[in-house]
Amino acid sequence: MATIETTGLTRSYGDICALKPIDLSVPEGEWLSVMGHSGSGKSTLMNLVGGLDRPSAGSLKVGGEDLLALSEDGLARFRREYVGIIFQQHHLVPYLSSLENVMLAQYFHSVPDEAEARSALERVGLGHRLKNRPGELSGGEQQRVCIARAIINSPKLLLGDEPTGNLDSKSTVMVMELLRELRAEEKFTVIMVTHNEDVAAWGDRTIYLSDGVLVREERLGIS
Amino acid sequence: MLLKLLPHFLSWAGIVLVLLRAFPARRPVCAALGSAGFAAGVAAVCFLLRAFPGDLAFGIFRGMMGGSLLLLWFVSVVAVYRSTTRDFAAPRGGGVTDGPAFAGACSIAAGVLAGAVCACRVSGGGPGSLPFLLLVPAAAALAFALLPLEARLPGSLTLSRTALVAPVVALLLFSSSSLLRLDLFAPLSMKVMKFAHDFVHQFMESMLFPDHFFIRSYLWGYIGLLFGEGVGFWGALVIWFTPVALVLLALQLERLPSVAHIRQGARRRKLLATALGERRRRLVIPLLSLAVFGGAAYQSRYPSVEYWDPKPLAVAATPAGEIVIPKKGDVDLQDGRLHKYLYKQGAKEARFFVLMGPSGHFTVDLDACAICKPDGYGQAEGTVICYYCKTLIPLETVGRAGGCNPVPINFTEKEDGIHLDALALINEWGNTVQTTTKVKEGGK
Q1: CA distance A116 to chain B (A)
Q2: Is residue A113 part of a domain?
Q3: pTM of the model
Q4: In this complex, do A109 and B272 lie within 8 Å of one another by their Cβ atoms?
């Protein structure tokens, strides 16, 4: 069963067409890497699929839910309950500890549960960094906090927008291995936007975008 | 009259909305039986007012209002007990509250009281039956008109059976508090004040402090606070608001569904959050009823009724020591209103009033009672009211001694007017009023 189904999915900003009609199907549990140059429409596609933006035309179904038919509140609920997002820039709250950052995601989803947040951080290997604020963590550690935050609400879809873009190769491998382990346990679908061929290779399938058009598709993943 | 009925119909609309929300599966039944109850309430008032002229009919309905407050107290205490007792076993037939009979009984009971209050308001408008007859279709039309409106209210605004009584009683008391003779808060304040007064007095007696020999005067100043109006007011507020506060407490303490068996954390938290949200939303209507209770107390404390309270006219005694008040002079003593007079004898003075009651007989009374500070009396809606303790005294009983009734004075009715003894008047004022004044002002 496909988690994501798009038909003629398009996004325009005025005269600029960031994403030309795309037909895409992502089965449940797949790890899809999205590659392309800057301005090729990778982040636009991710934003649409994650319910962060609305398409200009076409149809978009995620987990059987027609995102075009959802109201703003419905879309917020969809993001809250269905999607986990990892950004390149982390977007952690600087004056909250790692634990509090994870609990904040729980708070917006339902209610905070400290024991569960603690356990999530232990799962990503940060059991000893619970009380540290983002500024006291390395880039790799911050990204692991982001992963804990993204998975704490058991999303069905995990979106990564260049999650390793700021990391050195050692940290990159560590983060990717962690994501692979978590996917094996939690069975979520992954869509990973990246510039990096090595990072893309962790996926089951890679699609290439150029000027908003899906130009190529490879099934080369090592996972 | 329509304007006077507005708060009562607003309360009726609120009651109907509450009933419809509490029994969503039986909405038309609630509207129909509520309207039938309303009609029964109106009919009961019509009958009682005709059968027992005077204060009895009002007394019965005031008693029923008091009963509804007691019911709220009972429900709130049971609710707190249920929510705080882990092994509380629901009594047999616990599902009764979900049945049609319960919904119907609640609708009828609320309708009867709401209809009675409306009819009591109309009863002051004149002897005809037409206003009474118009009330019933108006109330029924309103109830059925509210059916589609209630369906548009947010579905998340739920009302549990525990909380049902609070808004209904609040709205009934709000409705009745605008009628002097059905108001509960003012008599409640008075009772609390008298209870505090009697308790302190008895305590002093039992502690062998019959007089102030051992107690310095400044201490009496503090003890005097317990005799004040504030004690009655704040005590009544406690009695007034506590049951709703208990209902809120009971709702807040209601046990959440067990989610420990759910393995996935997010799902477990989601269920918990949903249950918490529902519990929070169930507090909204009781919180609103707290505000309605406040409105009822405010209406009672600051009634919109304008009392007839004429400025006392100075009178002098004849050389024979008699005060003569002509029946027809500057004022007409036979107009059914109280007329106040002030008599001064040297440094002493006494305030009194003359009133022709509904029976057509005159009564002369001090403008003070033997209990309260002599703030005097006003007249409205078939009663006189003691300004100090807000006790209503039906015109029929003015002239009888005791309680908060104005102290009656002996007089003679002659052709030329009312004759009373000036010295006896001054002495009566001195004996019955001055003493209490000292105590009320905290100065022995």
Answers
A1: 7
A2: no
A3: 0.75
A4: no
Q: Considering only CA atoms, which of A153, A78, A156 is closest in space to residue B269?
A: A153
Q: Please check whether residue A158 lies inside any domain of the structure.
A: yes
Going by C-alpha positions, the residue among B70, B44, B43 that lies closest to residue B57 is B44
Domain count, chain A: 1
Question: How high is the ipTM of this complex?
Answer: 0.83
The CATH number of whichever domain residue A6 belongs to comes to 3.40.50.300
How deeply is B329 buried, as exposed, middle or buried, from its count of CB atoms within 10 A (0-12, 13-18, 19+)?
Answer: exposed
End-to-end CA distance of chain B: 49
Q: Does B266 touch chain A (CB under 8 A)?
A: yes
User: Which chain B residues have a beta carbon less than 8 Å from that of A153?
Assistant: 266
Domains observed in chain B:
2-183+230-301 (no CATH), 189-225 (no CATH), 313-440 (2.102.10)
Q: Are strands B348-356 and B377-380 parallel, antiparallel or unpaired?
A: unpaired
- Residue B66 token pair: 């008091």
- Residue B392: how many CB atoms within 10 A of its CB? 22
Beta-strand pair A157-161/A189-194? parallel
Contact B366, B406 (CB under 8 A): yes
The CA-CA-CA angle for residues A219, A220, A222, to 5°, reads 130
Are B100 and B222 contacting, i.e. CB atoms less than 8 angstroms apart? no
* Confidence bin at B440 (pLDDT 50/70/90): very low
**Which of A110, A116, A152 is opposite residue B270, by nearest beta carbon?**
A110
Instruction: Give the 3-state secondary structure of residue B307.
Output: coil
Residue ranges in chain A whose pLDDT is less than 50: 221, 223
